[in-house]
C-alpha cells in the first residue's frame, strides 16, 4: 500500500514547495491536488451537482499545474497527481502541453486524474453544457493522447477538431502519463475501462468499493489500479482497501497554517508508520 496526501492549500498557509519537501522528508509517496478554475457566487449555499455544500476553502485553491510544477522543482521522488483536473473545462491543446511539460520537468512523476466536473454553473461558465460534459471529456482525453503520442497529431470530433499539428514536448512516460478517471458513476466506470489507466475513487464503504472494483476489473479484463482520495485515518478501512488490491490511499491534510500543517503531517506520518 502506498500513502499519499490529498490537500487544498489556501493563500497564507503552507506553500507548495514547503509541502513537497515536508512530504519527502516524511516518506510520503505522492501529493494529490484537486482543481476548480473558479466557483460562481450564489445567493444561497454553494452547491455542487450532487447537492452537497461546498467547503469554502475550495473557493481559494490555486492552479494545480503551477502548484505541482513548484513541487516538482524541489522534490526528487514524490509522485505528482492531479486529483482531479477538470479537463472538460480546459482547452485540450494547452492541456496536453502543460501536462507533458510537467511530466518532463518532474522526470516522469506525473499521474493525470481527470473528471467531468459536477459544479454545474462552473461548467456553464466555460461554455460546456452539463448534459454534454461526459462526451466532451471523452473527446478531450482522446485528443490529448493523440498529441502526447503522435509526431503529427490530428483529431476530428464533435467537440474537438484540429488538422495535423506539432505538439511538444512529449511526456517522459511512455506511451504517456497514466490517466486515472475520477468519479463513481456508471459513466465513470465505462470511461475507466475504455480510456483510463486507473481509477481515482472516493473513500466508498468497503462493500461498495469491492463491488465497483470487481466490476471494473471484470469489464476491463485486466488489473485496474485504484487510488482512493481523501481517505480517513481508519486502519481497518485501509486494510480492507488493501485486501481489495487498492494501490494507494491519500490521507487528508486539512487546510491549515504552515506550522499547523507540519504538525498534522507528523501525526499522519506516525499513523502510516504504525500501519
List the keywords.
alpha/beta, 19% strand, globular, two-stranded antiparallel ribbon, 275 residues, eight-stranded parallel barrel, single chain
Question: Mind describing the biggest β-sheet?
Answer: 8 strands, parallel, barrel
| Alpha-beta content class | alpha/beta
Ranges with pLDDT <50 over ≥5 residues? none
- Sequence of strands across the biggest β-sheet: 1-2-3-4-7-8-9-10
Query: How many helical stretches?
Result: 9
Instruction: Quote the average pLDDT.
Output: 95
Q: What's the total number of strands?
A: 10
| Strand portion | 15-25%
Q: Sketch the topology as an H/E string, one letter per element.
A: EHEHEHEHHEEEHEHEHEH
Roughly how much helix do the residues carry, as a percent range? Answer: 25-40%
Distance between the termini: 10 Å
Q: Short description, anyone?
A:
It contains 9 helices and 10 strands. By secondary structure, the protein is of the alpha/beta class.
Summarize the helices and strands and which ones pair or pack.
Elements: E1 2-7, H1 16-25, E2 30-33, H2 64-74, E3 79-85, H3 92-105, E4 110-114, H4 120-125, H5 133-149, E5 153-156, E6 161-165, E7 179-182, H6 186-195, E8 198-201, H7 206-220, E9 226-231, H8 235-243, E10 248-253, H9 258-274
Parallel strand pairs: 1-2, 1-10, 2-3, 3-4, 4-7, 7-8, 8-9, 9-10
Antiparallel strand pairs: 5-6
Overall description:
By secondary structure, this protein is an alpha/beta fold. The chain contains 9 helices and 10 strands. The protein is 40% helix and 19% strand. The strands form 2 sheets. An 8-stranded parallel beta barrel has the order 1-2-3-4-7-8-9-10, surrounded by 4 helices. It has a two-stranded antiparallel sheet with strand order 5-6. α6 links the parallel β7 and β8. The mean pLDDT is 95.
